[in-house]
């Protein structure tokens, strides 16, 4: 009996060693590919990546290039950055958790859920808030005109230190021309939808939306230890300094802008590539939303896919012949979960003008993983 136990133990040890050896070989290929991409594109400033592929025993991060192009400080693989619109998925998941708890309904009208101030503004602007549902906000089919336009970017550029408020941004939206199409007719990506969703979260929880998101998603349980809302929450004591993120059009450096311009649910979260990938991976493993049907709705088309691939807080895309659940952010932050490979990849390119590298690099990483099957 003891010999049989010893043999089984040896077999298990050999299997573990083999898996570790395979994972190390794959990770070496990842490193080579990332180094090659960066060497060919040094104007990207810096690239941070995380690959979470549990079936391959891989949880791998790396950073190349610089976190600050002026001081030439090197990136750190655990460097956090502004996620911008990737924040929307966290807001959507929080809303869906409240639906799972039967505190909200997906098709519930927003009229009596948003703040009284917002309700008055949009009704005065001619919107039928009884016809706009939570689902419309989540899927960007509300028909509400956004406050973000070219003039808004010009305002931010002219007044980089301005302390924006959510009320100010909502009011700006209410003053924009109202479109002819009503709710549910067309897709139009709009930050205003997610600002209103954060008002709904606060109305239901009685707490600030950012602390509610942290509690409802349960960041500690998911080990999201480097994820927080900038300027609204304190960063972890051990957190690395934020990476600088750049945009050529206005010669922007994220450090030189008051982050309130993109803070209240349309953006606002700071995270590492690892935390972002873990969030997506655990979401689709059913570790956050327990109701499988509700989780499936997140990646189900709301309109026909030719009109919009945006679902509920993320996009269902075809990526090089594979289905992927995806979201991106203004500053060049992208994340996708590929169900076929049970793999999540998150990539931050710090010069947002070079964000096409994110898709190219993700594809090369996925090819490496597929070749090992």
From TrEMBL:
Listed name of the protein: Beta-lactamase family protein
Domain Beta-lactamase-related: 60-354
Source taxonomy: Bacteria, Pseudomonadati, Bacteroidota, Flavobacteriia, Flavobacteriales
Region forming the signal peptide: 1-23
Keywords linked to the UniProt accession: Signal
Gene3D superfamilies named among the record's database cross-references: DD-peptidase/beta-lactamase superfamily
Basic and acidic residues composition-biased segments: 164-174
Region Disordered: start-end pairs: 164-184
InterPro entries, A to Z: AmpC-like, Beta-lactam-related, Beta-lactam/transpept-like
